[in-house]
Amino acid sequence: MVNPNSNGPIAENARQFQDQLHRLLSKLTDTTDFIKNWPEAKGGDGSMHVERTSQLITKIHTTVKMLQRVEGFLQKDAALRETFLQCRIPLDLLDMLDSSKVNPELFARGLLREALGQLAGLKRRKLALELLGGAITSGITGVAPTQASENEPLVDEEQTMNDEKDGSKKRKMEQLEDGLHGDDVDADTTTRKKIKLEHENEPAP
Predict the structure, then answer these.
(1) Angle 60-62-67 (CA atoms, 0-180°, nearest 5)?
(2) Rounded CA separation 53/138 (Å)
(3) In the chain, what's the furthest Cα-to-Cα distance?
(4) CA 77, 78, 82, 84: dihedral to nearest 10 degrees?
(5) What is the pLDDT of residue 68?
(6) What's the pTM value of the predicted model, to 2 decimals?
(7) For position 155, what pLDDT does the model report?
(8) Is residue 110 within 8 Å of 94, Cβ to Cβ?
(9) How far apart (Å, rounded) are the C-alpha atoms in residues 201 and 80?
(10) Assign residue 8 a region: left if phi > 0, alpha if psi is -120 to 50, beta otherwise?
């Protein structure tokens, strides 16, 4: 939690806090072992239980004082307190806290953080699988998605080509109509000239 190469008052407070925290954990372990190794009374003699109970009470008082000392460090340094609260908690310790009901709020926060981390990992795996599926599909079809989109003509291009074709057809029809109209005029002029010549060649009465 503390960088041994760091300097400054904040680092010094963190070192002292870490040292007090280690002592507290050692005292908790010692008290737990003391309770686990509680001897059985032989016969009706209860003096041994009285002595062991007195020792246990002393250990509990010592543990409480060390816990208050650790809390004092956190109360004096807000930055240190925030850093301590953001520390990741092992799942084994969370299970122990939940079973012993030591701090349900701390357990819930740690468990939620762990769940969010696993959810983020699953989202990354899902994205990787989707990319892999797309690559496999492209390999089977033999055409990459970008190439397929390039080969397909755009709607605007198709409309422009159709408009050009329609305009060309219209111009051809107009030219054809103009040609037919010109032929009719020429035929009419030729007929008139022929009638005039025939009229001139007729003998006079």
Answers:
(1) 95
(2) 75
(3) 178
(4) 20
(5) 86
(6) 0.40
(7) 45
(8) yes
(9) 132
(10) left
Q: Are the CB atoms for 35 and 56 separated by under 8 Å?
A: yes
- Secondary structure in 3-state letters for the chain: CCCCCCCCHHHHHHHHHHHHHHHHHHHHHHHHHHHHCCCCCCCCCCHHHHHHHHHHHHHHHHHHHHHHHHHHHHHHCHHHHHHHHCCCCCHHHHHHHHHHCCCHHHHHHHHHHHHHHHHHHHHHHHHHHHHHHHHHHHHHHCCCHHHHHHHCCCHHHHHHHHHHHHHHHHHHHHHHHHHHHHHHHHHHHHHHHHHHHHHHHCCCC
* pLDDT at residue 146 in the model: 53
Please identify which residue in the block is written with the tokens 């797309």: 134
| Residue 35, CB-side half-sphere exposure with 13 Å CA sphere | 10
Hey, CA dihedral for 80, 83, 85, 89, is it positive or negative? negative
| 13 within 8 A of 77, measured Cβ to Cβ | yes
17 CB neighbour count, 10 Å cutoff:
23
Q: Within the chain, which residues score under 70 in pLDDT?
A: 1-10, 41-46, 91-104, 106-107, 143-205
b/e burial code for range 93-121 (CB count within 10 A of at least 16 → b): ebeebbeeeeeeeebeebbeeeeeeeeee
In sequence order, the 6+-apart residues with CB closer than 8 A to the CB of 143 are 151
Chain segment 90-116, per-residue pLDDT in tens: 766 666 666 556 666 766 777 788 888
